[in-house]
Every structure is written in C-alpha cells, then in structure tokens.
Specification:
alpha/beta, 6-stranded mixed beta sheet
C-alpha cells in the first residue's frame, strides 16, 4: 500500500519534557493536516540529547502520563518518537517507540551507544540487546536509533526479519566542513542511507534534529529514501522542518523485481559462517 510520511525535524529543549511534548503535539497536528499517515521524530525528541546527569530526571516509564498522552495522540496518526526509558530495575535506555491506534506497537532500545569523541552515552545509559522487525499497517517495519544504523549487522538483521521500511531516529551533530562547505557528517549520512536502502531493497526514513546544545550543532537534513537509494524528499539544513513524502508500493515492488538482492540473500550461509568465525575466536 502507498502511505504518506512526515519527518518532524524539530529543535527539542534540553531536559524540558513538558515543552518538548507540546512541540511534538503541535508537529503531529501539522502532519495530520498534511494528510500524513505516519510521523517520525528524532532520537530523544522528548528530552534533548546531551543529558548527562539529567538522565534519571527526564526518564519515563512506559505507563507514565507523558507516554499515555502520546498513545492518545496516535489515534489519528502513527508516531515514532525517541525518549529516555526508565525500567523497574532502575536502568535507563535510549529508546524509541512506535505507536498507532492508541497503542505501543513496538519498543526499540538503542544497542550501539557511542562513547567516543563528543559522545558519552554508555556512561549514563544501558545497552539494548535485540533488533526485531514488526508488523504494521504500512507493512513490516524496523526501528533503529542513530549509531545503530552505522553497524551493518543491525539493518541487515531487520531486513532478514522481513522489514521493508527502516526508520532511523537520529541526533547527529554537524562535523567536518569540506572544501565545498558541506558538512562531512551530512555527506556520510546521505551515503549511508542510500547504500542501506540499495543493498537491502528497503525504504529508509531518516529523521535528524536541529538546534544547539552545549555549543554543539545538529544539522537536520532528514530524508525519505526509496529502495533504489534515491532521496524522495529531504529536509532543510540547520532549520526546523516538516519533511513530507509518499512511500509508494510500486517503487518497492519494482526494485525487488529488478534488483532481487534480498530474494537471493543466503541467510543459512551467513549464519554458518558467522558461527564458524565465532568458534575460531573471531579470526
């Protein structure tokens, strides 16, 4: 089926859950007005990114009033949104939930927590331990959070689990200005989303945030990428934006017929060879 998506390239306020929830509600209303069936928000849209010691203060349980509000909001439109999740055993996760028809359909906890350079997630957050595709009214989907997409095994696992649309929530800082005044991080992400879509015969919905935190800039550039690797729609650089696109079933069908990479993928061989490598100690 064809469906319309909106990528909400917003500027969350650091540590201000109430304000960010209001912003999410406003953007969701705009997306509904634009006839979108699904709206995607960035990584940690409810909280801001560089939280550090604020993590326990902004973390939410899945039955919190804020999540209940989001569930109600999803009665008219499906929503993918990022937040800090608090569990009963006092762990905190960089999580994303997919909500639709008033229910949480799927929860993903970020597996790959960057802890290098300006990133320090592993100091404050627990790791997720799984990648799972899930069924939705838009077909089979997979959720990823930022760094997850940079590990080849993550989107591969989701694709082999049947996902035809990969949704990546991101908070990517702008880094590395090139000679032609393009951000190196922008070039890298666009190359990554196009390559992932092409090799997995899958749509990629990438939603990045904008704004500044502690002097660090987030560059935006959210995009909807077709299974052939072509960007169907792309957000503004460094500005808030609501990026709209239509995901057409015909594009997915055509690409999987003309370039049947996923049809021909040999999962049993992959598993066998990985088990051999693990048994040999990784050599």
């Amino acid at each position: 089926m064809d469906f319309n998506i909106a990528l909400a390239q917003i500027k969350p306020k650091l540590g201000c859950v109430a304000d960010n929830l209001t912003l999410i509600e406003e953007q969701t209303a705009r997306a509904i007005g634009a006839k979108a069936d699904l709206i995607v928000f960035p990584e940690l849209a409810l909280t801001g990114y560089f939280l550090k010691d604020l993590v326990p203060d902004v973390a939410l349980a899945l039955d919190s009033p804020e999540i209940v509000r989001l569930k109600k909001l999803s009665a008219e439109i499906a929503i993918a949104v990022g937040f800090v999740e608090a569990t009963a055993d006092y762990r905190f996760f960089n999580s994303a939930i997919f909500l639709d028809k008033g229910e949480i359909v799927h929860l993903h906890r970020k597996v790959y927590l960057p802890t290098y350079g300006l990133f320090d997630e592993l100091r404050y957050l627990a790791r997720g331990d799984r990648f799972r595709a899930f069924d939705s009214r838009f077909g089979r989907l997979g959720l990823l959070i930022c760094e997850d997409l940079w590990h080849l095994s993550a989107p591969y696992i989701l694709a082999m689990h049947g996902a035809t649309t990969l949704i990546c929530l991101s908070s990517s800082p702008g880094r590395g200005l090139t000679d032609n005044e393009q951000l190196g991080s922008t070039i890298a992400w666009q190359r990554l989303t196009a390559t992932t879509a092409t090799f997995l015969n899958a749509r990629v919905l990438y939603c990045n945030r904008v704004g500044y935190e502690d002097g660090i800039n987030f560059w935006g550039g959210s995009e909807a990428v077709a299974p052939c690797g072509t960007a169907l729609s792309r957000g503004k650089m460094l500005e808030e934006d609501l990026v709209l696109a239509t995901m057409k079933e015909g594009e997915l069908r055509r690409e999987r017929i003309l370039s049947p990479l996923m049809r021909d993928e040999n999962l049993e061989l992959t598993i066998r060879e990985l088990q051999r490598i693990a048994a040999e100690g990784g050599s």
